[in-house]
Each structure stands twice: as C-alpha cells, then as structure tokens.
Design a protein that fits this description.
The complex is a heterodimer of chains A (about 110) and B (about 110). Helices cover about 0% and strands about 60% of the residues of chain A. Chain A is globular and about 45 Å long. Chain A starts with a strand and ends with a strand. Chain B contains no helices and eleven strands. In chain B, strands 2, 4, 5, 6, 9, 10 and 11 form a seven-stranded mixed beta sheet that branches. In chain B, strands 1-3-8-7 form a four-stranded antiparallel beta sheet, with no helix packed on it. Classes of the chains: A mainly beta (about 110), B mainly beta (about 110).
C-alpha cells in the first residue's frame, strides 16, 4: 500500500481559477514534506518544504499547508496560469533513514 | 551553468541489449540517486550512492547496475535481466543523504523495442 496518497488524480481548471490538491500520508515519523512540480517530460522541481512544526508555506501563487496530526497536506494554486499545467508530487521524507515516499502525483491541466 | 544533466533524453534499445544511462552533476553533491517513473505511479528508487565508490540498492534494483567512480558521475546500466525496462528514468543528487533537497535531472525516456 502506497504510503502517500494524492487526490484528485487529475483535474482540469480554467485559467485564472484557484484549485487545491490533497496529500494524505501514513509515513511516521516523518522528517519533512515537499511538494514538487513536474512538467511533462522533465524532472521534478521543489516548490515548498515543511517540517513537522510548520503548517503553511508559500512560494508565489503556491501555498502548501500541513496538518501533522491528521497527516494531511494540501497545495493551493491561486489564479492559475497555463504554465501551471503539470503533475504535482507530494513527497514525504522518513525520519531516521532519510528515504523518500512519493505520491503518484496530481495531474493539473489549465485551459484558457 | 550548474546543475544535473542526463543523456540521452530519448533512448531506444532492442530486447536483450544492455544500455547505460548517463547522469552528471556539477553541484559538488555527495549523494546521487536513480529513480524509475512509470505512468500513474510514484517514483521508485533503484540505486543510491552516498559517497564515491559506494552505492546501495533501492527498492527495485533487480536488473540494474550502477557505478560511482567519480563524485560527479553516477551511470545506470539497464541490463537484459530487467523484465520491463521501458520507463522514464530520473537521476537526482543532494548535498548529503540527510534532509537536503534532492535536485532532479531532466530524465531519460527508455523504450525497449
């Protein structure tokens, strides 16, 4: 069973609209949680990182939240642009052995 | 221009052939990693190396081999023993194997004909 579950698997949004992506994880204890953006055919690029004690982190139009008690994170995209079309991957780092658990990604398509 | 590079971007091979994917970084990172990405699945760790001349198996090492003779380079060989090698391969590096960010290369798409 995957330790990191993301939803929705895919979504289509109109340019200029907001959207929220969800990440639920069972990894415990964890060291940190990152959201990556992966454009089609490219390598992932880190957007945000949060440790256990942080509950929100912003990077421009991207805002990530973390609830360590319920083991949930979200990534909110504000005023979406066409360039936001990508897969967004939630990655949890395990505490102690430094291995990473990857979600399958949220595929976002922004249409004009 | 610092970063991590992978070559080639696209690779085709016939069944039964071994093929080597290149990964180079000029970030002076100690740790390097190889992942495999399949459609609809999360990244899976193949091999990783914390330091030159040392490497460890990841979760799906069967059918793959690596070497780490130089700090900058971590080539991955996909052998004929890998039953389903068609995939997108990603190389990454980090300062150490601690809580540091992993920086990913652009990937190599391998197709077995």
């Amino acid at each position: 069973k995957n330790q990191v579950e993301q939803s929705p698997q895919s979504l289509i949004i109109l340019e200029g609209k907001n959207c929220t992506l969800q990440c639920n994880y069972t990894v415990s204890p964890f060291s940190n949680l990152r959201w990556y953006k992966q454009d089609t055919g490219r390598g992932p690029v880190s957007l945000t990182i949060m440790t256990f004690s942080e509950n929100t982190k912003s990077n421009g139009r991207y805002t990530a939240t973390l609830d360590a008690d319920t083991k949930q994170s979200s990534l909110h995209i504000t005023a979406s642009q066409l360039s936001d079309s990508a897969s967004y991957i939630c990655v949890v780092r395990l505490y102690g052995n430094n291995r990473l658990a990857f979600g399958k990604g949220n595929q976002v398509v922004v249409i004009p | 221009d610092g970063g991590i590079t992978q070559s080639p971007k696209y690779l085709f091979r016939k069944e039964g052939q071994n093929v080597t994917l290149s990964c180079e970084q000029n970030l002076n990172h100690d740790a390097m990693y190889w992942y495999r990405q399949d459609p609809g699945q999360g990244l899976r760790l193949i091999y990783y190396s914390q330091i030159v001349n040392d490497f460890q198996k990841g979760d799906i090492a069967e059918g793959y081999s690596v070497s780490r003779e130089k700090k900058e380079s971590f080539p991955l060989t996909v052998t004929s023993a890998q039953k389903n090698p068609t995939a997108f391969y990603l190389c990454a590096s980090s300062m150490g194997q601690g809580a540091d960010e992993q920086f990913f290369g652009p990937g190599t798409r391998l197709t077995v004909l």
